Fold these 3 entries.
Entry 1:
Amino acid sequence: MSVDKDERQRHLPAGRKAQLAAHVADTGQVTVSELAERFGVSIDTVRRDLDQLSADGVLVRTYGGAVSLSTVFRTDRAVDQRLTLQEQEKEKIAALAASLVQDSSTIMINGGTTTLAVARNLGQHRDLTVATNNLLVPGALPPTAIRDIYVFGGAVRTLTLATIGPVSFRANGGAELDISCDLALIGVGAVAADAGYTTSNLAEAAMMQEMISRAARVAILADSSKFGRRLFAQVSELSSADYLITDTAPPADLREALAANDVKVITPAASPRQRGARNAG
């Protein structure tokens, strides 16, 4: 029985990887089991191929599959699309971020799906005051955890379901009230040693800057797919944060830059004692 050239090439490691990479690029997001069936190889083989392609910078490895670079790096996508990306990584980051929140404290949360995951992870907390521009956060917060919820006003970006406007509130007489928080939880689009924390939207960057300026402590939330990149608008320099919470250790250059700016990197590998109890301090 003869096998045509394309079929032979598909089962050679180099040829299979090339076709696998092309398939991921075309579809945007795939699972290991789907690829194993499509290419007629074992799940372990697909995992090795994806790990190698990820190391080569061809795609981004995710829990149970992979996503294309264009999918990950298209920064201005609808919130329902972003909810499906890097889900496992976001949940890990969210759990770590929640461990920094102290009972009876005030926190600010910006727009984004990683910060939304943090809101869902606050069920063990009590008496929190939350201020946010993320329109999905009020519905995601466990009622038992909350004392008060405030939503910053302004124009609504329907793409991200977040408001864009001043980080402030006014009294009934019209005077602006001075506000501050114990902890700002800020999700960003990119983190780089030279560019600091950046995002794709200028107005959102301005809001994030103001949240940071009003916080006693600042935690930046970013999964590892955002390392070593720079987007349109700078939110702040690395030194503005107390913590970078992520799913895996940053590359050496970024890790060194963060250390030089006294930013503590928190990953799932860090011990709970290093992260601190939620009622500490």
Note: The CA atoms of residues 54 and 61 lie 6 Å apart.
Entry 2:
Amino acid sequence: MSTPSRTDTATAAAAVAATNAPDRGHDHNENEGHGHVEVDGVLLSAELVEGPSVASHDVAEYALWLGDDSLVLAQQLGWWISRAPELEEDIALGNIALDLIGHARSLLHYAGAESNRTEDDLAYWRTEPSWRSAHLFEQPNGDFAHTIARQFIAANYLFELYSRLADSADATLAAIAAKAVKEVDYHRDHAAQWVLRLALGTEESRARMICGLGDLWPFVDELFVDEPLIDRLDGVAVRPSTLRAPATDAMAPVLREAELNEPRGFISSGGGRRGDHSENLGPLLAEMQVLARAHPGASW
């Protein structure tokens, strides 16, 4: 995957930055019968074959947190295919979304084994309160600058998370993280280049980049909150509060080069890890789940 040069002009990006994501539909009832929906011929990564077949309840819950974050973000990024400011960016964002789907599939497969559910069951047949994604990942695409701001924060957080999770005492989580961190390293570089390109481009692109960071920054705090589950997974899970400093330190040089200040303002109360979500998740899930729910038991 190729990335935009920092020396390119920002005119095209600024012009497309005004594009907003469309509204999504309505949520569905997860208690209705649905049969099994599967995609044939797609194999999971080797780490799930080599690792333990069933996680403990707490490990499964933790894997659900991480899998939901990746799947929701992948669904968001997929919208930009055919809508990005450059053809090259259609491909880049699509490939990032595919990376995230791969992470989500491995994590949800591992999480679902504890309750005898497949990754597809978890993706398509849960309603909003059963999801554990953090609010940052649920925020709308908005314009292109908003999407880049969300991706910049998310990729730096995920890189620090997977870098440490690769040393987890749980062999399966460690193997998933060791693979994911290599891909997320590209994601954060891609986002950093776009932050610079937009912030140092035209007056319009700079204003949109500042606005995007300001709108997304309130959701940063939730990423670093230590929920009670973390106390029960010492040596297995990564303590979120330990990620704040390295993630902030990683973003700081990019913000300085872009001549941007770290936003200040209100902090979102969050709650996604407990099933308390923003108003954006329900419509997103409705769009993602509609085909599986319209054709229960289908195989393709």
Note: Residues 198 and 250 are 19 Å apart (CA to CA).
Entry 3:
Amino acid sequence: MASERKATADPARSLAILWRTREPTSRGAGQGLSVDRIVRAAIDIADAEGLDALTMRRVGEALGVGTMSVYTYVPGKAELVDVMIDTAYGEMPRPAVEGDWRVRLERIARDNLALYRRHRWMLRAETTRPVLGPHLVAKYDYELGAVADLGLTDVEMDAVLTLVLGHVKSSARAASEVVDLERETGLTDGQWWQSHAPWLETFLTADSYPTASRVGTAAGRQHGAAYGPEYAFEFGLQRVLDGISVVVAERAANG
């Protein structure tokens, strides 16, 4: 899945800051700065204004320090975004593993969806090359626990988790686009479709397009628009879990 990040973090510098093995120089001493404070300020900016508004200068202004003082702790924006992602992963709840595998995966899916809703910028920042920080590793280890006792191979366990989280991210991205379009156009999805109603009534008739007319009308009534983010997420999640249940049943039968 493509990312809109314009810079690539240097792996060595990124890992050093993620695992806090890089010691700051004396430039930031005495100003109360720390990697954690800088990252928190950066997350607040990205949450409120998006990734495009995030610069090292902007972070410095938010903290009341010069830009070079920020660079003392974090070598660049790309590395900063890596630490922001890992820090956000650390916010996620990790309750004791309870219930059957389906209940566990549902909870994991909803927790990840909630994370994307809090930090929509993550949908742009994440790539298929994971940020290998401590919170990501802990998150991965915890979430694998949901399928650890199903008789799956290690590769299948990873694939199941990837499948569920892929659905979550796809759903979160679609829901985010709905929000962005409303902000950019000043119209909700419902209002946009209402403005197109005269055209639809004229051209999308039951005689000309019987299936599209019937199904489109039913979906529009259900969602109040052409697309319902919540319904799409719930429907898709259950179908993903249904598919996983087939694999689980096969492994149980062959075990």
Note: The longest helix spans residues 154-185.
